[in-house]
Design a protein that fits this description.
The chain is mainly alpha-helical and 616 residues long. Helices cover 63% and strands 4% of the residues. It is built from 29 helices and 5 strands.
Length: 616
């Protein structure tokens, strides 16, 4: 219902768009979902972000836009595969999308979704307004997709969120329509990256950013080819929505500006940039009002923020520029070959096809002029996100992530899809390179499908979807001791309990008031503020209303062993001193430990300290 409403609104706004029905639906859905985000932000600003109002708007909106959506869907036709290779690509897309949808229907367990992608919407729906309720800096990040999650969650609950992100994956799979002769190849190439497949099953935002970045590029190309100002404005709108998804989309804005400016369209570059920033400005205003910093938490001070946390969050000069400069040259190879989703390093599985098929672009001279210009534009556009990615690798250890380059892969996929046409113009004798490349691509995709299928069997989503496994059992299977600790807090602690999490940022499942350790810095930041004084720390936490501590002991041990965070013997000794003043309430397999702070009076704290010293 959420996506249909967005598509219907977008179709009404793009009536004059010169595009065949299937391609127009893609553009309309991307535009309409962005408009729906702005509507949700407006409702939140007025304190009307409540299920009753959202249901009413959804029903009335679908009644108004439904006929146009129905006519467009009836008229939309996907192109028929031209050969067996394209038929296999279409099968790969359909099979992957089906597996991903079933996985998206399960209860959310992905890390960032439990930290902030769903925590923000949970707060907003509880209060019916947009606000910044706790020390969670990520709530200052642009939230286009999170506002769509909020909309869907108001209708039917939390499982809607991942499915909305899956719909962006569907748009990404079809994003080559009208741009490439083989749109199935473009979609299959994007979904050949295992991390892209995984992300579209989670309530994350990266695939939405990929869609908006790719549509920004396409609109700029269509503007150059047609001279139509409509495409220029639409490019600015797409870039503005990209910025509203994630701050890193500043690279998309810069890429569009660069493409226009370097091709002699300087006036258009200004129009494009102003349009994008106008679409992004509501979020800047929201941040300024709620945090005191329009681009919170970056560059300026704001609520819950100071110089120490700015340093901690950015960790300047801890990247390759100071540790291993040569890795900036080998970064694409390293991210492709050594990157594994969820593992130390680049933390993303990008698959071998993007890097392996890049040499195809060398055959651009075999293509016609329009195709050559499109490849030129794609590489020029891609160069800016790539430069931003390299800068992040050079600047900070925290930014050594392959996932941060993934949103630009849509543009790269379009370039490679154009480049592969050059193979068709090579002689088939004595060696048919086109056949060899198609066979190699088919083999990689077949093995990727096996990988996806094994992951699907391991997750076993049908059990919980069909009710053969309870949601509690599914969460226990996926989240382990974390969910057991949170369930204890929800069921056993008093209603007025306020629990401070240490080295654990996930608080989504908390029904009591739980304060996240959002940057894994809460204890060290407290030492910075109050000194190495256990009693002072406890008193400060008490003044904040904290009654209990939940320590993620395994997480702490991991960070100590890794050695990146400044957690040394002195800090560990101070932590032990703090815990010695508290009463241990429960231990969860040695992974999590729950403590109760001593009473507020200093005499009680001193007594607890004396008892702890005596026992030692």
């Amino acid at each position: 219902a959420t996506v249909s409403l967005g598509a219907g609104v977008g179709l009404l706004l793009t009536k004059d768009l010169a595009a065949e029905p299937a391609r127009r639906i893609i553009w309309a859905t991307a535009v309409g979902l962005g408009i729906l985000y702005l509507a949700g932000l407006g409702l939140g600003a007025m304190g009307l972000l409540r299920p009753a109002y959202i249901w009413l708007i959804t029903v009335l909106g679908l009644a108004a836009t439904g006929p146009e959506l129905y006519r467009s869907l009836r008229g939309a036709r996907l192109p028929k595969p031209l050969n067996r290779f394209e038929a296999f690509l279409a099968f790969y897309l359909a099979f992957s999308l089906g597996l991903a949808l079933l996985q998206a229907l399960t209860p959310p367990t992905a890390w960032d979704s439990l930290v902030y992608h769903l925590t923000g919407p949970k707060f907003y729906l509880k209060e019916g307004r947009i606000f910044h309720p706790t020390d969670l800096p990520y709530l200052g990040f642009p939230e286009l997709v999170e506002m769509l999650f909020t909309w869907g969650m108001a209708l039917t609950g939390e499982r809607t969120a991942a499915v909305i992100h899956w719909f962006y994956g569907l748009l990404g799979a079809l994003i080559g329509l009208g741009f490439c002769e083989s749109p199935y190849f473009t979609g299959a190439l994007i979904l050949s990256a295992p991390t892209a497949f995984i992300l579209m099953t989670w309530p994350y935002v990266d695939i939405a950013l990929l869609v908006y970045a790719t549509l920004t590029f396409q609109a700029l190309v269509f503007h150059r080819e047609t001279g139509s100002s409509r495409w220029l404005i639409l490019a600015g709108v797409m870039a503005g929505f990209a910025l509203s998804v994630k701050y890193t989309a500043v690279a998309v804005l810069a890429a569009g500006f660069l493409l226009l400016f370097t091709t002699g369209r300087r006036k258009e570059s200004l129009i494009f940039s102003v349009t994008a920033l106008l679409l992004f400005s509501p979020w800047l205003v929201k941040n300024l009002i709620l945090t005191g910093n329009p681009i919170y938490p970056f560059f300026f001070k704001g609520i819950y923020w100071d110089e120490w946390r700015r340093w901690w969050f950015g960790r300047p000069w801890t990247g390759f520029a100071t540790t291993a400069p040569w890795k900036l040259l080998t970064a694409p190879w390293d991210a492709t070959i050594w990157g594994i989703d969820g593992a130390i390093g680049y933390s993303a599985s990008l698959g071998p096809l993007f890097l392996g098929l890049l040499p195809l672009l060398a055959g651009w001279r075999l293509l016609d002029r329009r195709e050559r210009l499109r490849i030129r534009d794609a590489l020029l556009f891609f160069s800016m996100p790539y430069a931003f990615w390299l800068f992040g690798l050079a600047w900070s250890y925290q930014l050594i992530q392959g996932r941060l380059l993934l949103p630009a892969f849509g543009v790269l996929a379009l370039a490679i899809a154009l480049g592969i046409k050059a193979l068709e113009r090579l002689p088939v004798k004595p060696l048919n390179l086109g056949w060899l490349f198609r066979a190699a691509i088919s083999l990689v995709l077949a093995l990727t499908l096996v990988e996806f299928s094994l992951g699907f069997l391991k997750l076993a989503p049908l059990k919980v979807i069909l009710g053969l496994e309870g949601e509690e059992a599914f969460l226990a299977r996926r989240l382990g001791w974390y969910i057991k600790a949170v369930e204890f807090i929800n069921q056993k602690l008093p209603d007025n309990a306020k629990v401070l999490f240490l080295w654990e940022p996930k608080t989504y499942h908390c029904l009591k008031e739980c304060v996240p350790d959002s940057l894994l810095d809460r204890f060290l930041h407290s030492l910075y503020l109050y000194g190495y004084d256990a009693e002072a720390l406890i008193s400060a936490w008490r003044r904040e209303g904290i009654t209990h501590l939940l320590l993620y002991r395994t997480g702490l041990n991991y960070l100590v062993d890794e050695g990146f965070d400044p957690i040394g013997p002195k800090e560990l000794e101070e932590l032990d001193e703090v815990l010695s003043l508290c009463r241990k309430v429960e231990d969860f397999g040695g992974v999590y430990q729950l403590f109760e702070l001593p009473p507020e009076s200093s005499s009680a704290i001193n007594l607890a300290s004396h008892q702890a010293s005596s026992s030692r």
